[in-house]
Amino acid sequence: MIFQTGSQSHGTRQLDVENSESELRDIGLSTIFEKVIFVEGSGDQAVLEYYLRDKNVEIKPLKGSNEVVAAFEKISNISRYIHGSKFVFLVDSDNKPEGIFENLRALNPDFYDSHFIRLPCHEIENLFLDEKLFKKTIDKYLRVQGNEASSPSEASIRKYIVEKARESLPKVYKKECSLLMQRVVERFFAPCIWGNKDFDWSTAESVERQLTSEVFTEDNTENLFHLLSSEARQVYNNYENINEDTLLSKCDGKQVLGKCIWYYSHKAGVQASAFRNALYNHAYSNRAVSMTKCNT
Questions:
Q1: pLDDT for 76-107, tens place per residue?
Q2: Under a CB-based contact definition with an 8 Å cutoff, are residues 93 and 120 in contact?
Q3: CA geometry: angle at 200 spanning 197 and 202, to 5°?
Q4: For the chain, what are the domain ranges?
Q5: Which of 59, 244, 225, 224 is closest to 160 using CA atoms?
Q6: Distance of alpha carbon 111 from alpha carbon 77, whole angstroms
Q7: Is 154 within 8 Å of 181 (Cβ atoms)?
Q8: How is the beta sheet containing 86-91 ordered, strand by strand?
Q9: Residue 118's beta-bridge partner residues?
Q10: Helix/strand/coil percent split, the chain, to 5
Q11: What are the average pLDDT values for consecutive 10-residue runs of the chain, which has 296 residues?
């Protein structure tokens, strides 16, 4: 990694460079890394390390999308001082509202467009919920055993995957409702408390008095209840009549893929870990999973 400095304003630029290096250290990087992909956790790391094991790429697992977004914001702010390095920020869509990504892109549109990947599905594991992919993987093992006649049909595999996807929806509802409700609560209380320039912060007693008399009034409480209920109802309505393809894109991918791999690995007579690697290999061979920014 090469940090660019010029002869003019050298002192200021040197300070910027030092600050940039400090920012990188804060997120666990150093100047020895030339290609880094930030991901939400170990699941994403395992998938990408399988595909990029010969690419000399550092996969940096963080703790959820908020940390990936924070890393993007930090590096976006210092990107003009960094040369010769490539960063990719990969986040699950987690069915997040579109506005979250629009606001993030507005910080640095060029850097966002060339370095940020929002998966087109709930999680990276959703990309592998494909009956053809499972069928090829199962047949590979049954063929070796001379037992192809016992191979399940694509239709039956599809039915099983969809069944597990529907079973995962309560977890999806919880995640989506939680995210939307957090935003409702923040918008609701901001003008009443921390965004209220007349709010008296002089003593704990004054804060308690205002919370009782001005914030948690009967009208405000009822209004907040209706706002939260409306958001929750909308989430459930969105899933009421979705088709199977949309369901497989929006379900809890980690949970569903794990259950499907466990089930079909037993049918194929192999360890789940071996089945998972074979599944990834078939997906890669057929380019079922493609993320061009990760391959640059």
A1: 887 777 666 788 999 887 666 677 788 888 88
A2: yes
A3: 130
A4: 2-119, 125-168+251-285, 169-239
A5: 244
A6: 10
A7: no
A8: 58-61, 35-39, 86-91, 116-118
A9: 91
A10: 65, 5, 25
A11: 35 44 57 76 86 82 87 82 78 73 87 88 92 95 86 96 97 92 91 92 95 93 95 93 94 96 95 94 70 44
Place of tokens 């199962």: 138
Helix (H, G, I), strand (E, B) or coil at 195: coil
pLDDT tens-place string over residues 107-159: 888 988 989 988 888 889 999 999 999 999 999 999 888 888 889 999 999 99
Asked whether the CA dihedral 196, 200, 204, 206 is positive or negative, the reply is negative
Matching residue, tokens 């892109």 = 105
Query: Is 251 within 8 Å of 176 (Cβ atoms)?
Result: no
For tokens 């957090």, name the residue: 182
Distance CA 31, CA 217 (A): 54
Query: Computed from CA positions of residues 215, 218, 231, 166, in that sequence, does the dihedral angle turn out positive or negative?
Result: positive
Of 189, 185, 183, 175, residue with least CA distance to 235: 175
